[in-house]
Amino acid sequence: MNDFYSRVSSCSSSAFLISYLYPMLFSEVIGQSAIKERLVRSVRDNRVSHAQMFLGPEGSGTLPLALAYAQFLLCTDKQENDACGKCPSCIKAAKLEHPDLHLSFPIVKEGTKVEKADDRIAEFRKVVLEQPYLPLRHFLSELDEESKRPIIGTEEAGSIIHKLNYKAYGGEYKILVMWMAEYMNETAANNLLKIIEEPPDQTLFILVTENASSILPTILSRTQLIKVPALGDEEIMQVLVADHHIPEDEAHNVCMLAEGNYWAAHSLVLDLEDSGYSMQTFRAWMLLCHKKNIPGILDWVEEAARLTREQQKNFVRYAMHIFRQCIIGTYTDNELLRAREDERDFISKFAQFVHGYNIVDLTEEFNKAHYYLERNANPKLVFLQLSFRVTTLMFPKK
Questions:
Q1: Which alpha helices (H) appear in 99-225, and where do they start and end?
Q2: 0.90 cut: is pTM over it?
Q3: CB-based contacts of 144: which residues, under 8 Å, 6+ apart?
Q4: Bigger pLDDT: 74 or 348?
Q5: Strand order across the 51-55 sheet
Q6: 198 with 321, same domain?
Q7: Which of 40, 131, 162, 211 gives 182 a disulfide partner, CB atoms 3.0 to 4.6 angstroms apart?
Q8: Are residues 279 and 191 in the same domain?
Q9: Do residues 269 and 15 make contact, with C-beta atoms less than 8 angstroms apart?
């Protein structure tokens, strides 16, 4: 991957987004063929549940699936396995502007200026149409609100009830797609419970979540659960090669780091300098920690702090990836390693420092670092604290 980043960074971001400007067709959703078939069949068999929950990890495509499903339901000229993409309903749905397609998502409240999702709908449409695999933190960062707590609150619940009590504008259904439904507070969830349980005619609820355990059990029990798995490496790799024109070997390296998360793969392509850079940086950092070289660690922290926020988070994820491979290499078959040849050589020597006695604590420390970086904590403090914890956990005094 020597010249990978230089080639990628020479392209504009829009070049990597072009195929997702209108992400509403099943054919444009990456992978998930079994889920697509199940959704299409439910419409063909007239067995559409009035309340469904799409549960899947970040980057698995839960939101694109929900939007493609909504467009298929609203399409007036359905094809065998997809919406037509050409009828007036499809054209409106593709722009997230269909009057019978209602969108709900977490917002950061700002007094009476921003109380409900409709107050941020223009920004939401823009970001989702550019990249429907986005995590919530990316949407918030686009609004400079990633350090604040978003919610789906009582005002939003009232707005949903008000809109869904109207008759359908022109389609067969009124559809609510609620993204990141786990951000509903308890009052909002209780307020929506009755309309979910006894919806107006031809009203459908599609809740999208990454964490069903955070949703009120009474809401969960009234929805049909659709579990969306993480994407396969081959599915992501096909997109990187076909749409983003990345050589197969480089796409394979990105997929190993992304671990089924298309957003992570997308982010790596755009923001990570390259995995060779990460390997060299990680190796140098671990050597400094091993030698307890405080001046060297301080210099390293200064360098890490100069990376972009996304590069910092990607590096932390890369370090966690290496730790996982160390455990796999130690306790299972080396054939299961998800690593390049140069990484395998490093892991074979480094794995002695990562074991059952420290892996849980290491994982917790790196997860905390990632969490703090997402919330705009001072990167110097984050990486300095992390360096000291790595030194203590991996290279204790004998």
A1: 121-130, 136-142, 154-164, 186-197, 217-220
A2: no
A3: none
A4: 74
A5: 101-104, 174-179, 203-209, 51-55, 224-227
A6: no
A7: 211
A8: no
A9: no
Q: Residue 194 has which token pair?
A: 């009755």
CB count within 10 Å of CB 7 equals 12
What SS3 state is found at 204?
A: strand
Residue 13 CB neighbours (<10 A):
12
Give yes or no for residue 11 having a pLDDT over 60: no
pLDDT in tens, 267-304: 777 654 444 457 888 989 999 999 999 999 999 999 99
* Distances from the Cα of 146 to the Cα of 190, 217, 276, angstroms: 27, 28, 30
Q: Rounded distance, CA 31 to CA 295, Å? A: 48
Instruction: Assess contact for 30 and 262: CB atoms under 8 A.
Output: yes
Which tens digit of pLDDT belongs to each residue from 342-391? Answer: 677 788 888 888 888 899 999 999 999 998 888 778 999 999 999 999 99
pLDDT band for 340, please (50, 70, 90 cuts): low
Q: Tell me the DSSP string of 270-286.
A: HH---HHHHHHHHHHHH
Q: 208, 227, 246: which is the final residue of a domain?
A: 227
Residue-number span of the structural domain to which 367 is assigned: 272-394
Q: How many domains in the chain? A: 2
